[in-house]
Amino acid sequence: MTQDNKLDGFPRAQFMSGPTPLERLDRLSSELGIDLWLKRDDLTGLGFGGNKTRQLEFYFGDALQQGADTILITGAVQSNFVRSAAAASAKLGMQSVLQLEERVPEMGQEYYSSGNVMLAKILGAEHMSYPEGEDEAGADAALHARADELKAEGRTPYVIHLGLNHPPLGALGYVFAGQELCQQMPDFDAVVVPSGSGATHGGLLTGLALAENSSSVYGVCVRRDSEKQKARMDTVLQKVADLLGIDAAPLRDRINVLDDALAPGYGKVSGMTRAALEKMARTEGIFLDPVYTAKTFAGLLHLVSTGEIQPGQKVVMLHTGGLPALFGYQNELVDDLT
Ligand SMILES: *Cc1c(COP(=O)(O)O)cnc(C)c1O
């Protein structure tokens, strides 16, 4: 699988300044009895960083090639993707339109004003809202309606879609990240990643396959249960394989998703989430975010406790960022704030 693929043929904007650090977590390693490493994709640089920086290099590469001047994108109210897209637009002198969806019920006022929401306002993005949180086709259609208005005003809009009926260009960023990781450390036994849209999980898995690395890839469900996520990953991997002109079957055989840390649902903080977030902070001095990476670490702890990850194994957890959301979730994370 090494040579024949189209990976280098895609237009790419440059937002990364180089490989992200891979750090050993010494105290957690001895506590858990494994050899634990953290791939610091929270440190990707652009506008507070995170995994979306790698993904956006390919969407913006495509947008620039099409002569776009305005980016439209949709996500949860505390979406890191839309905030990162606003930062990328600023860097390239483009406008951005962010659509925020009601995906997480019963949140307090800070959820709507702090964290990513505040950062996107500083970045000068235009905001619109969408009343549903589980309607990918409808959310994409609303973006297109706004894009049509912008076209009528003489602008050249580019829509970054949520739905799977569009090529998952962002996953290409994680195909490269998988190869980067294998160069930094070729001999790990397992890697644990969050699995949301699946661009990160699917891209990384493909990158490892292209590097002929056969370690276990665990996708921790952060959005939907493992049955639904498995089906989604089947589609994502097929689409990534189609982009690259490679065979999807060996990739799909490696899908491994777990939803033990998902409850009570997307963007909701459980005691397990909070305990994982505090453990990382209090043992290593590193912050995780409440929506994705704390759940990913909770999933990793679960894999260790069940013996699925075995003592002494070399394990990499991917830190995908998301730190601004800490401030949008302040009352879910700390009891005695006032
Ligand atoms: C979006 C996001 C994820 C999920 O990545 P996908 O590629 O959508 O699966 C994980 N972590 C953080 C911090 C994110 O912002």
Give the gist of this structure.
By secondary structure, this protein is α/β, with parallel strands linked by helices. The protein has helices spanning 26-32, 52-65, 80-91, 109-113, 115-122, 136-152, 171-184, 199-210, 226-244, 249-252, 271-284, 293-305, 325-328, 330-333, and strands at 22-24, 35-40, 70-76, 95-101, 126-130, 157-160, 190-195, 216-221, 257-258, 314-319. Residues 50-52, 80-81, 194-201, 289, 292-293, 320-322 line the site of pyridoxal-5'-phosphate.
Describe this structure in words.
The structure is a single chain. The chain is of the alpha/beta class. It has 2 domains: 22-50 and 168-336, 3-Layer(aba) Sandwich (Rossmann fold); 52-160, Rossmann fold (3-Layer(aba) Sandwich). Helices cover 43% and strands 15% of the residues. It has 14 helices and 10 strands. It has a 6-stranded mixed sheet with strand order 1-2-10-7-8-9, with helices on both faces. A 4-stranded parallel sheet has the order 5-4-3-6, sandwiched between helices. β7 (190-195), α8 and β8 form a beta-alpha-beta unit. It is globular. The model has no long low-confidence stretch (mean pLDDT 96). It binds pyridoxal-5'-phosphate. Pyridoxal-5'-phosphate is lined by residues 50-52, 80-81, 194-201, 289, 292-293, 320-322.
